[in-house]
Amino acid sequence: MWYINIDSFKEANGYTIDGIWYPRVTSIVSIKAKPALYMFYAGLPDYKTGEAIKSKSAEEGTLLHETVEAILRKEPIVIPDQVKPAVNAFMDFYNNNELIAHKIEERVISKKHHFAGTMDVLAELNGVLGVLDIKTSMAIYRDYSMQTSAYIEALTEDKTLPPLTRWILRLDQSKRCLKCPATLRDKGGREKIRGEKGQCQHEWGPMKGEVEIKELNTFDSDIKAFLACKSLWEWENEYWLKKIK
Ligand SMILES: [Zn+2]
User: Fold this and answer.
1) Is residue 145 pLDDT above 90, yes or no?
2) How wide is the angle at C-alpha 28 spanned by C-alphas 170 and 242, nearest 5°?
3) pLDDT of residue 89
4) Average pLDDT over residues 204-209
5) pLDDT (tens digit, 9 = 90+) per residue, 79-89?
6) Which of 135, 140, 167, 152 is nearest to 223 (CA)?
């Protein structure tokens, strides 16, 4: 990454809280290589197409986050058409579980390890307290466990909160073929077919929402991996970090 000055580095990679700058959790975890991302770019005509898909897909993800968070805040909402199936899937989940949001989009700080982040939801799910992270991806990737372990560390290191669990709540939407097991997903304006076997003139059914919840229970190894990322991230950005200290 290239930055024109220290302020642009600080802005892009962290938060200034009470006059102290902290690196952001998502910037730190971005140092880890993501081989799947190379495969994604390799399947596209050019780099620009990839960036366009990523930005449109991020926009849809933000829209879904905002809608779900408004539901959790019990605010009146108009569900945007683009994300309606996924929101409906979430509503089913919400109506069938006891989900109470205590904090939403809250800044958390680790003074011990010097980093900060914004967690999605501090929630009580069926009587258990934990951090709920909402993802709008095709699957639950292992990398999410590093990011969420950092939030847990920040929330619990001063011992004012009891031990917390973590969940990834994945929301997505896709169409199923009526004649074969294939599914079609439209993400960032790009249609992607998965699970194709043999020849089929697909006939797509309606767009349907999906909801998946996964509890993560590997905190010790996840936070170790996160802190290792942080060391690597600091090494990579040594030039800028020296100017801050
Ligand atoms: Zn088919």
Assistant:
1) yes
2) 165
3) 96
4) 95
5) 999 899 999 99
6) 152
Identify the pLDDT of residue 18: 94
C-alpha closest to that of 207 among 172, 173, 171: 173
Ligand 1 center from residue 190 Cα (angstroms): 18
CA of 212 to the centre of ligand 1 (A): 24
**What structural domains and CATH numbers belong to the chain?**
6-239 (3.90.320)
Residues paired with 115 in a beta bridge: 110
* Neighbour-count burial of 132, counting CB atoms closer than 10 A to its CB (0-12 exposed, 13-18 middle, 19+ buried): buried
Distance 165 CA to ligand 1 centre (A): 40
Residue 206 Cα, ligand 1 centroid: separation in angstroms? 14
Question: How many Å lie between the centroid of ligand 1 and the Cα of residue 35?
Answer: 29
Residues 135 and 148: beta-carbon distance below 8 Å? no
Distance 91 CA to ligand 1 centre (A): 29
What pLDDT score does 209 carry? 96
> What distance in angstroms lies between residue 189's CA and the mean position of ligand 1's atoms?
21
How far apart are the C-alpha atoms of 245 and 185, rounded to whole Å?
Answer: 46
Q: Is the pLDDT of residue 1 over 80?
A: no
Token pair 């809608």 is found at 67
CA–centroid distance, 173 to ligand 1, in Å, is: 17
- Cα separation of 190 and 157, whole Å? 42
Cα–ligand 1 centroid distance for 182 (angstroms): 6
